[in-house]
Design brief:
Elements lengths: L1 H12 L26 H11 L1 H5 L18 H18 L4 H10 L8 H12 L10 H7 L4 H12 L13 H8 L26 H24 L17 H7 L5 H22 L1 E3 L5 E3 L3 H19 L2 H23 L6 H10 L10 H11 L3 H12 L3 H11 L2
Antiparallel strand pairs: 1-2
Helix pairs in contact: 2-5, 4-5, 4-10, 5-9, 5-10, 6-14, 7-17, 8-9, 9-10, 10-12, 10-13, 11-12, 14-17, 14-18, 15-17
Length: 408
């Protein structure tokens, strides 16, 4: 009764191009609940919030290490900001808020410890650009690479274990697609999955997925700027040298100086102006079916100037470079240790290796048989993938703790 009413309300309330909840499909058939009071996308939202990967985001770096300040963004606070922005856009344009919310909450589940630098390090290890001792090159090539949007889908499809009858969270195809395509894919496959039904080579098929991709970018640039100013890596007055200063609402704030109050006003103004412009321009659907949200030419130039400023002054700063160096050393040493000494991995990780391959759990072997099996694992692409899954799922603090265990 409740679900029928919700779906009827969607059909009357949403814009013609909006995604309806009854358009969604799941990979595995589920039993019908006696009382259904949530739409499929609301179910997906709740499954994401309750999964382990979501909880771990609170201890994963966005850009800056948490010890630098208690007030810096982490992966979870970034996710919540994107969720708030995407819901606002969806509501204003009569699109499906529940779908935008679910995609937003799940879009960064696959991020590694130590922010984007950790992601890059894991990818370079898997691509053999960062050497691992005794590596089997063919097996590493088969294992693929590491990119957080692909890893997010891997988590919700395979790695989360909350159901007896299947792996993963069994999310709808629309949410899975939005998670995968919130950032570039280019038709590439980054790990051992086939991404069933997601058509990696094509753009997203829903306007809600396009919303999340755009609000993710807005949130990222604005909060990286705020965190950088807070750490004195950049100053508000330096924005006078950028196209941001060409826009009157921004110019008036920037001209007031570098104080803390001005920083708050600047970040608030950036969000308001960019969001107002984005919503005011609405959504376009191209001939290829791709949905597009875009700024006006003036705001597009200002946003490009903001992005360039954030990268050159903050992302490429000495503080971030030092964190990147730590990430490279920690993740490389962890990968090297687990690859060459598999017994260092927890039982549940070794069980996952056995589940996906014909290699038995090392814990159940002794002597020469254990040594032969450990050597065999080096040529197993699924073993390499599982190590990447394990390290990629770590929080910053857990990665450091494991690093200190192998480097006392």
């Amino acid at each position: 009764m409740f679900l029928k009413r919700f779906l009827e309300d969607e059909n009357h309330r949403l814009a013609p191009i909006a995604t309806r909840s009854d358009e969604s499909r799941r990979r595995h058939e589920e039993p019908v609940l006696k009382v259904e009071y949530r739409t499929p996308f609301q179910h997906d939202r709740d499954r994401i919030i309750h999964c382990l990967a979501f909880k771990r985001m609170k201890e994963k770096t966005q850009v800056f290490a948490p010890e630098q300040s208690d007030h810096l963004r982490n992966r979870l606070s970034h996710t919540l900001e994107v969720t708030q922005l995407s819901r606002s856009v969806a509501r204003a344009l009569a699109l499906n808020e529940d779908l935008a919310e679910a995609i937003s909450l799940g879009h960064d589940l696959g991020h590694s410890p130590f922010g984007h630098s950790g992601e890059a390090v894991l990818n370079r290890i898997l691509k053999q650009e960062i050497p691992i001792d005794n590596a089997d090159s063919a097996a590493f090539r088969q294992a693929g690479g590491f990119k957080h949007n692909y890893q997010s889908v891997r988590i919700v499809d395979e790695l989360e274990n909350r159901y007896r009858d299947w792996d993963g969270l069994n999310l709808t195809d629309k949410v899975r697609e939005g998670i995968l395509k919130h950032t570039g894919t280019g038709g590439k496959l980054y790990n051992l999955m086939t991404y069933e039904g997601l058509q990696v080579e094509h753009p997203a098929t829903t306007p809600e997925a396009a919303i999340v991709a755009m609000t993710d970018e807005i949130a990222q640039q604005c909060h990286d700027l705020e965190d950088g100013i807070r750490l004195k890596l950049a100053f508000i007055s330096q924005l006078k040298e950028t196209a941001v200063y060409d826009i009157e609402p921004f110019r008036a704030v920037i001209a007031r100086g570098d104080s803390y109050d001005v920083m708050n006003d600047l970040i608030r103004t950036l969000f308001h102006v960019f969001m107002d412009d984005l919503i005011g321009n609405g959504v376009e659907q191209g001939k290829n079916g791709q949905f597009r949200f875009a700024f006006s030419p003036e705001l597009e130039k200002a946003f490009a100037g903001l992005r360039n400023f954030v990268y050159t002054r903050i992302i490429f700063s000495h503080d971030v470079a030092r964190s990147d160096h730590v990430a490279k050393r920690v993740l490389r040493d962890l990968f090297n240790a687990f690859y060459n000494s598999p017994k260092l991995l927890p039982d549940y990780v070794l069980n996952r290796v056995s589940k996906y391959s014909d290699v038995p759990n090392l814990r159940r072997l002794t002597g020469e048989e254990q040594k032969k099996t450990a050597d065999k694992l080096k040529s197993c692409d699924k073993f390499i993938r599982v190590i990447a899954d394990y390290i990629g799922g770590m929080t910053d603090s857990y990665a450091m703790k494991e690093y200190r265990k192998i480097n006392p």
